Amino acid sequence: MRGRLSRLAVVAAASAGALTGLAQSAGATGYALREGDTDWMANAFSGETAKAYDASTAYANPAGMVRLNRNEIAQSVNVIVPNESFSGANFVGPGITTPGTNGGNAAHSAVSPALYAVWSYAPNLKFGFTLSAPFGQRVVYPAEFVGRYQSNVSSVTDISASFSAAYAFDKHFSIGVGPVINYFYARLTQALNTGPTSAITGDPAVDMHGEDVALGYNVGALYQFNDNLRLGIDYRSRIKHDLYLQQSVFVPPLISQFNPAVASQLQALLDTNTRTSVTLPDNVETDLYWQLSPKWALMGGFQWTHWSLFNNLTFVPQNGGPTARVPENWRNSWFISTGANWQVLPRLLLQAGFAWDQSPVTNSNRTTRLPDSDRYMLGIGAQYVLTPNTTLRFAYAHQFLSPESINNSASPTAGVIVGNYSIHADTISLGAVMRF
Predict the structure, then answer these.
(1) What is the pTM of this model?
(2) Within its chain, how far is the Cα of 396 from the centroid?
(3) 376-421: per-residue pLDDT in tens?
(4) Is the confidence at residue 248, as pLDDT, over 80?
(5) What is 186-249 written as a DSSP string?
(6) DSSP code for 135
(7) Are 149 and 98 in contact (CB under 8 A)?
(8) In terms of CATH architecture, what is 2-435?
(9) Residue 278 pairs with which residues in a beta bridge?
């Protein structure tokens, strides 16, 4: 029995350590969500820092607020419908696979609203407020998923509120800056592999969740060469969250009944608070916006994201258990986009854009929590001026990825999951701009 208990201690500790992949819980690429303002999506998120023609610039580049002559509110509701389907097996020994299903579509749909507001205090001084969800996703596999020893539930919610001020030095140059308040919540679960008897007794499962609020900042600049051509640049700082997590283990009744010592040790090891930290990456984006004619506008830009900050995670149990260090080894990534607007009628604007979004993960570190890869994005949309003070907006974006392989283990006892993921996503956005 002592050997059995010792093995379970290793199983539990290793599995708990694997759960520290908090930032693997969501993706867009990485765990960022680009969905925000409807106008951005219509152009495949091209030109964001240089457009500066509505209140959403309070987030994309606060320096652009100086171009707005009135108070404005921009609102959007984004419906995200992703699809992530796995095919393959989890090997727990030579030729031995975990029984179960491939899980179907693991990525759950979500609704992501956003709000942007600008107060025009003076012609050269503006103030802004934004409320949005820049990170987050839901990846949920069924309890009988073949990769349940890698992960079951990966859920991240992130809400960001920012305040900003913009000042125009002259008709060409302006800057904007302000603090960011960020709320971060994560919930992760996975089953524990306790050996062949799990087919009879069922798998224990670990549930970990926690939240934190932290501060960052946003700073941007806008240079207007003339009335039709402008260049924007924006920097969003990294934000470090120190997470104190509540962790608990579910032990199947048959284990508690026939192996009470094992059940007791699992609970002693895993029913504990834990501590780790997650750093949301900083990024810098620059865009060009060119009003080619009264009917046509062209735009393009680049964004660099500091994903290599997510190199390692350290998990510190508060019951004196061993500290676990989990390597992640993400890479920095680039986002490149281009778009166009066509004023087809005085009240009707049509939009389109195309983008390439590089993933911070590769074949060597792809996991079931984030089966991500490089993606391509096509966006289309329309804006209709309903009244002089109200504009209605619609956008649709499709993201497509080539099938990607996975060959990964979350812990020494989780086995090795081998197979392929097929991934795509559709997003619909409805929005409105109101001026007063």
Answers:
(1) 0.89
(2) 19
(3) 999 999 999 999 999 999 999 999 887 789 998 888 888 899 999 9
(4) yes
(5) EEEEEE----TTHHHH---EEEEEEEEEEEEEEEEEEEESSSSEEEEEEEE--EEEEEEEEEEE
(6) B
(7) yes
(8) Beta Barrel (2.40)
(9) 241
